[in-house]
Design a protein that fits this description.
CATH topology of the largest domain: Phosphatase 2c, domain 1
Largest sheet: 5 strands, mixed
Number of helices: 6
Order of helices and strands: EHEEEEEEEHHEEHHEEHEE
Strand content: 25-35%
Shape: elongated
CATH superfamily of the largest domain: PPM-type phosphatase domain
Number of domains: 2
CATH architecture of the largest domain: 4-Layer Sandwich
């Protein structure tokens, strides 16, 4: 099926908690449909650069390693579930705080286990190698780890995969957040807040589109969900516009007829944004959209 055994999404608060769990559930369904027998380990993670939280779900997957900026290394104490096809969802999520500039290391058990090497020994060897990694270029580090852990001539118990990612924090002045009233005037207020904030960030080229996205999302929440309502903009490698509320009901795209007066809101959101999605939060849900930045603009201003 071409599905990755491990996956990590780095972003500004767009994928968390049960959203990660839902992806594992969908992946289970796809894999188990394709392979009626056998057990498939899968690990997924989502890192939020606004607060340093990393949400990880494991279905029979080894725990990822974290290399802190001071060089110390630890394996995440996962709430692990059985592999795909061996258990039914929901899969439980583990939340950990990972400091900025840390290195996240996801890997398959084939990298640390073989007929001649138990998994505990392989993980200990990986930890020692990571402790000496420092600020090594990630391409070089990946090659070094694969070479040391899988030397020529050593039998392999399984396929091996390695994923390395150095995480960065989003500056506080690149995040703007406002509580919104639960009344029909909220959509207009959202447009004004977006216009002023993007002017301050010198992202004027994105103003018109982001105003439309924000007003549509806020208007839908006021109309169909319940509070508290909050609008948030995040300026990182892309511009995120996010609206959260206190409802667990997820929106869906409707195919409105030509004579319908409404029902096109999410179609508009899907058309105007590069990507969009929903996620559960501790108090409800959030709907987010992402737009690429104009070419000359960098997230560091």
């Amino acid at each position: 099926m071409g599905l990755p055994p491990c996956c990590l999404r780095l972003g500004a608060g767009t994928d968390h908690g049960r959203a990660t769990d839902r992806r594992a559930s969908r992946q289970r369904s796809r894999r188990c449909f394709a392979r009626r027998s056998g057990r498939e380990p899968v690990g997924r993670g989502a890192y939020d650069s606004t607060d340093g939280r990393c949400s990880i779900v494991s279905a029979g997957h080894p725990p990822p390693a974290v290399v802190r900026p001071d060089g110390s290394v630890y394996f995440v104490d996962l709430v692990a579930d059985p592999p795909l096809c061996a258990a039914d969802p929901p899969f439980r999520t583990t939340d950990v705080t990972v400091p900025a500039e840390s290195l996240l290391v996801f890997y398959t058990d084939g990298l640390v286990r073989s007929a001649a090497r138990p998994v505990d020994q392989g993980m200990s060897e990986l930890k020692d190698l990571l402790r000496d990694a420092g600020r090594t270029d990630l391409d070089e580090l990946g090659t070094h780890l694969m070479t040391e852990l899988l030397p020529p001539g050593r039998p392999h118990a399984d396929d091996s995969a390695l994923l390395l990612a150095r995480v960065h924090a989003l500056a506080a002045d690149h995040v703007a957040s406002w509580p919104m009233p639960e009344d029909p005037q909220a959509a207009g207020q959202a447009r004004g807040l977006v216009r002023r904030q993007l002017a301050a960030w010198r992202l004027d080229e994105l103003t018109t589109t982001t105003e439309l996205l924000a007003s549509e999302l806020v208007g839908n929440v006021v109309r169909y969900a319940r509070g508290p309502v909050r609008l948030r903009l995040l300026w990182g490698e892309e511009l995120i516009c996010e609206v959260s509320d206190g409802s667990l009901t997820m929106p869906r795209i409707r195919h409105a007829a030509e004579t319908d007066e409404g029902g096109r809101g999410l179609q508009l959101v899907s058309t105007l944004s590069h990507s969009w999605g929903t996620r559960y939060t501790e108090t409800g849900k959030s709907i987010w959209t992402a737009q690429p930045l104009p070419e000359p603009v960098a997230a560091n201003g």
